Amino acid sequence: MDRMVIGNNAAEASVSRAFAVAGLGALAVGAVSGMLGKIVGWSPALSALGGAMLGGAGIFASMALPRFVDDSPYEDEESDILTDLGSEKPDASVLVSYLIEHLGADLTAYLAGVDEPDQVERWASGEVDPDPLPLGRLRSGYAAAGYLVRAYDGETAQSWFSGMNPWLDDEAPAYVLRHTHEPEIWESVVEAAEEFVEFER
Length: 201
What we know:
With 201 residues, the chain is an all-alpha fold. 77% of the residues lie in helices and 0% in strands. The chain is globular, with a radius of gyration of 30 Å.
């Protein structure tokens, strides 16, 4: 919301600058046209007409320029969601801590493919890092959980990971993560979470 307000303020400031430049440009061009008219012997009416035409061109240019040059950086909502849900690849300790907080250590260990909850606790503390295979599963679990927790809560996320899922051939998402090795399949779990949230709205 803050970014939207800032963006609107920046747009208003840009338009205000454009009007100021347009006014100054029209005055300057009109004055120059009048001086040239006197030098070359134009009639006052012709000088005024030339000044109006050139001033109008200046106004058009100053108003059109902000449409093509935008100095205000914008990020769309989809970008925010991706950032919040792991597009910037947070440290393993961060995403594991998030999963433990919202899913519990047992379910986090299960979907990562390890049998000891103590193992994920060590990952969360930063004592050791997970191997690439469980880390990939954890990243997808983190992204999927993010959609669910944001829309509902941790309890709903736990139920979703443990229950049969029609988007995953009636397999539980945690089961799919634990028993597969392909990133494409892990991504399907994230997509299933997103579909679930959209479907329930």
